[in-house]
Amino acid sequence: MIYYYLITALVTLLCLIFLIFHFELNKVNYLLMILFILLTITNGGFLAIALSETVSEAVLAKKVCYFGACFLPVVLLFLVCEICNYKVIMWIRRVIYSICFFVYAMVLSIGITDWYYKDISLKEVDGVSVLVYDYGSFHVLFYIILFGSLFFEGIILLYTLLKKHAVSRKNLYALLLLSVSNVMAFVLVRYIHSGIEIMPLAYALDSIILLYLFRRGMMYSIDDNIAGSLAENENSGYIMFDNRWNYLGCNAFVTKVFPDIKDCVVDRPLKELQGLHVIFEHMNHYMNDKKDTFSIQIDEKHYEGKIERIRYRKNPSGYIIELKEDTDNWKYLNLLTDHNKELQRFQSELEEKVEEQTKEIREQQEKMRELYLQTILAISESVDAKDRYTSGHSKRVAKYAGMIAARMGKSKEEQDAIYHAGLMHDVGKIRIPDEIINKPGKLTDEEFEMIKVHPIAGFHILNNISTDNAVAAKYHHERYDGKGYPNGIAGEMIPEVARILGVADSYDAMASNRSYCKALPQDVIRSEIEKGKGTQFDPEIADIMLQMIDEDKEYKLRELTENIKRILIVDDDEENHVIFKEIMEDEPIYEVISASGGRQALEILKNESVDLIVLDIKMPDMNGIETLEYIREKYNTPVVFMTSDKSLTLSADFASYGCNDYITKPFLALVVKEVVHNMTETTMIEG
Question: What is the DSSP string of 76-101?
Fold first, then answer.
């Protein structure tokens, strides 16, 4: 067992030696250095007890042990406070240290009085000496120091782990392990009643853990590091003085600027050597009129200076003069003075170039914005195309959401962002099979579970395009009470844009014809939204929707789904009129009107508005291209050409005339319907 005490003592000693010789001592936290010294002394004391041959030798060695043991818990506590960035008030430190010194005074009375130990004797266990004793009345003070320090240390570490983020988690866990191991070792010693002390092993492990933490850089003295960095700074100079302006020292930068300063003696007034007179001059200015900044020129270099007070514990303790070379900036200012007109001309040209480039950037941004909007509309159209019954749903939801946002006091930019989110909120329905979306009856549980996939699908489709729109798509089916999907979040945890879309989406679902039901009356919709306040909907947003419903006396919001779209078909062949009307007769939202030629079509356009013009190319009085030229002089109405010539590559040529698309004869019913639908829906969006 003698080797046990010898090894633990050597471990703490080697850790101390490694700390001294391996690291820069001026960067080591002083509390850490004290801690290593105390650990080494304490384990040395344990070794001395084990080697003792008489009671008096063992008592003396025990006093050496206690020199470390009395102060170790407190020093470790203060070190933990510094690591966790807590300042301990000075008077509290003094009180705690005073208690430690008092306890150690009681330790020194061992063998003289019974205050701390009594009935002392020496016995041998496994070849080592063990001091046997009973505790005196003052020994309880040591427990107060030990367990009090460990208690507050644990609280500080746990609080820092939970509340602070500027301290390394790994370091805090290591310190917590150190504290817990010390407590466990102490408890084992007291309750196992073994003749072998466990604390030397705990102290050896403490040394290793603390050395590890120091190597990780957590116990360097920040102030000393800063001071060292300033001293080595090659771009700034520092000269220090005491309160009486006695010279205290400078860094290498200053000696390069004022070589004669090497002849000045520390703790004496600065000599008025050649070159240093400028420093004296500005020192006097500072004393007389408190002017703390100055400029000096030496040879061809220019320096900016500043005089500041040095304080220690809030008390003035001296002065520091900071010098920074500013030659380049100084030359630039002189150049500005000498060549002011030239610089102004250059600045004017530069401003013109900047303005020109800014204009180009804005134009590019506008093009990108238009492309972005076109992309949004294309995505929205692709979703609505899956279900003719809910055609225009995304646009209507976007419109309602924008109206709600405006009433909430959102800015124009925020309203636009919410409108765009509304256009794309259902993009995930691309993932859902058509037979489920268009099913006329009630969905099965499995089908409804499939429907619940579309917010997640929408999130992943949009996430690389727009994070905000992706979030809106993901959460627009969440409920305020947390019973929605896909994540079941509740209240204001649901993003605001999703809460707005949730109300707008539900309103349109009830106010539109669906494959499984007709649009509900306005009073029924109002009742459902009122019923969903606080459960399905955000109460404040639901109130805004209710206000919009109450103001909409004639149920005009719903008219967005009921507008009849008028199609003008222009063809000299009456049979084509009949075929076209037969194709569209099962689409109740479309009205087809006819014109036998281009001139008649222009007359109709003078008196009536239409949503789409279907124009034959070959007509006797005025062909389709001529008619389109006249139309484009006044109208932006979408135009679709009809032709029986399938050998022409017409798309690019027709676009140059202002044609939006073309269809070929004989007509394919599905193609006609698809073209008509997309052209009329686009009209509504742009309008």
Answer: HHHHHHHHTT-PPPHHHHHHHHHHHH
Q: At residue 559, does pLDDT exceed 70? A: no
Give residue 19's pLDDT: 83
Tens-place pLDDT, residues 47-78: 898 888 898 988 898 889 888 888 888 888 88
The contacts of residue 652 (CB under 8 Å, 6+ apart) are: none
C-alpha closest to that of 673 among 609, 602, 612, 597 = 612
Residue 610 or residue 242, greater confidence: 610
Residue 640: alpha-carbon gap to chain centroid: 51
pLDDT higher at 647 or 612: 612
The overall longest dimension of the chain from CA atoms, in Å, is 134
Q: How far, in Å, CA of 49 to CA of 348, rounded?
A: 87
Residue 531: both structure tokens together? 């019923």
Res. 531: pLDDT tops 60? yes
Q: Note the residue count of the chain.
A: 687
Gyration radius from the chain CA atoms: 44
Ordered alpha helix ranges (H), 385-495: 393-407, 412-424, 434-437, 445-451, 454-462, 467-475
- Going by C-alpha positions, the residue among 235, 74, 243 that lies closest to residue 142 is 74
Assess whether pLDDT exceeds 80 at residue 267: no
What gap in Å lies between CA 581 and CA 569, rounded to an integer?
A: 9
Q: How distant, in Å, are the alpha carbons of 113, 250, 251, 296, 301 from that of 239? A: 57, 4, 7, 15, 19
- Residue 191's pLDDT band (boundaries 50, 70, 90)? low
Burial of 61 (0-12, 13-18, 19+ CB in 10 A): buried
Residue 636 exposed, middle or buried by CB count within 10 Å (0-12, 13-18, 19+):
exposed
Q: How confident is the model at residue 550 (pLDDT cuts 50, 70, 90)?
A: very high
What does the alpha-carbon distance between residue 259 and residue 269 come to, in Å, rounded to a whole number? 17
Query: DSSP assignment of 145-201, as one string?
Result: HHHHHHHHHHHHHHHHHHH-SSS-HHHHHHHHHHHHHHHHHHHHHHHH--SS-SHHH
| Per-residue pLDDT reduced to its tens digit, 333-388 | 777 666 666 667 777 788 888 888 888 888 887 777 777 667 766 666 666 666 65
Dist CA 51 CA 681 (whole Å): 99
Task: Evaluate whether 52 touches 58 at the Cβ level (below 8 Å).
Answer: yes
Q: How far apart are CA 216 and CA 211, in angstroms?
A: 9
What residue type is assigned to position 614 of the chain? V
User: Which amino acid appears at position 223 of this protein?
Assistant: D
Residues 6+ apart with CB under 8 A from 335: 343
Beta strand residue intervals within 590-687, DSSP E: 590-595, 612-616, 639-643, 661-664
Whether the Cβ atoms of residue 417 and residue 468 lie closer than 8 Å to each other: yes
| Residue 235 near residue 325 (C-beta atoms within 8 A) | yes
pLDDT at res. 340: 63
Calculate the alpha carbon distances from 325 to 129, 231, 280, 423, 626 in Å. 69, 16, 19, 59, 77
Higher pLDDT, 545 or 685: 545
CA distances from 348 to 331, 341, 345 (A): 21, 10, 5
Helices 539-551 & 522-531 angle (0-180, nearest 10): 160
Q: H/E element holding 49?
A: helix 30-51
